[in-house]
Write a structure and sequence with these properties.
With 138 residues, the protein is an alpha+beta fold. The protein has helices spanning 13-57, 62-76; strands at 83-84, 88-90, 98-108, 120-130. It has one domain (9-130). Strands 1, 2, 3 and 4 form a four-stranded antiparallel sheet that branches.
């Protein structure tokens, strides 16, 4: 025993614990960052489908609505963060009805170095907008 009551055999054990736990803590931190990135991309996709549904509801026919929805989706999405199929429409495109935009994407989960979670994760989002009761559709 030394002067302060600590045995000499335990000297440096805290440094060993830090060296062992540091990679575990780093991996946990990277998992949190990846989850945050996934939630952020999902929020962007939901906002995009909401805007696309609104743009589609302002058109007069189904083909124009589909074109408007797809142009909003193309303008809003960042090609580096998602891989999306073309947007589709559903609903009854009549006065007083609704139009729904469906978007199916895959979000890549790579790029964090130490933590490889796989190729990508699927996300499907839907958003609907009402068509004005007094609007002429055709």
């Amino acid at each position: 025993m030394s002067l302060f009551g600590v045995r000499r055999g335990e000297r440096g054990s805290m440094a060993v614990e830090i060296v062992i736990l540091a990679p575990v803590m780093l991996a946990f931190l990277m998992l949190i960052v990846e989850c945050g990135r996934f939630v952020s991309v999902r929020g962007d996709l939901e906002a995009t489908t909401r805007d696309a549904a609104r743009a589609a509801s302002l058109e007069r026919d189904t083909n124009s609505a589909l074109g408007a929805a797809r142009s909003v989706v193309a303008a809003s999405l960042d090609k580096g963060t998602t891989d999306c199929r073309p947007a589709t429409l559903s609903g009854n495109f009549v006065a007083g009805g609704y139009v729904q935009v469906n978007l199916s994407c895959r979000v890549p989960l790579d790029g964090l170095g130490l933590l490889d979670l796989g190729a990508s994760a699927p996300i499907e989002v839907h958003s609907a907008a009402p068509i004005d009761t007094y609007r002429r559709t055709g």
